[in-house]
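ok here's Helix-turn-helix transcriptional regulator:
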Amino acid sequence: MLSASHRLLRLLTVLSTRPEWTAAELAERLGIHERTVRRDIAKLRELGYGIDAATGPHGGYRLGQGTQMPPLSLDDDEALATAIALRQLAWRSPGGEGHAALGALVKLQRSLPRRVADSLRRFDSVVAEAGDAPEATAWGQVDPVVLAGLAGACRAGERVRLSYRDRRGSGSDRELEPRQVVRTAHRWYLVAWDLTRDDWRVFRADRIRDVTVTGRADPRRPEVDAAAMVEAAITSTPYEVHADVAIPRPLTAVRALIPATVARHRADGPETTITRLGGPSAQWIADYLLRLGVPFRVVAPDEVRLLVVEHLQQLLALQRNEPDIPAH
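and the structure:
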């Protein structure tokens, strides 16, 4: 769940992207109830932000014109969490609210106390990347306070206790020694030594709650390639649907095109690659392939092949029925 300060800042960011928003639209965009939207609007007005109520059958809100908005009053932990949250939003949505988030982040970083700025730099120092750059969709909802706590434990070499929910929904308390935070094209992960399993493990950060430092980590733990561990864990996680696809491109080109987080590749000669692509549904895989912008042939299954053919037939039919464009 978002902290109150993070939620208020996101609300301001969203309000700035359009002239007017209804309460229902704001609630859907922020993933909160309309009652929470109204309470947050009232809180922002108490803090001096000019937010006008729009008249009409549905009502709505807009930022007041020419209003000089005072800064939010944040303590050190809130400022760090807000900076991390803005960075997430700017990473995953390069346009629209992501652009506004980037502007807000630049302003916030200029006013951060040195100790908070140092904490943000320490956060960056323990973040690794796996796969391609982040996409604008499919990100897990990670509490920025959790991210900051995990990164701090990695940096300081601390042991933590936390609550974790696995993919089946089962919850457990874990004793871990965090090593590195890793972000992929889709999610945030933590690589840590699991004291109960006595081995390295990969954890999805959006399934982590209640991080508490309990002591010092064992400095004798061996080094580990955290990014490689995350990539291996993601690709080995069973997807609901797989498709085998032949792509007339060299192996290196296909690896650059389709990240290891969703597919495995093998060369079929110097100019062709066979890709095994995983996804939540046949439709998702068909849509993904059509967005690649390169030729491909679906080897199996028939369901994915038929969905691709059906989409292309619809496009062809639209082109054939397109009315003549009048000459000028």
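+1. The first strand starts at residue 51 and ends at 54.
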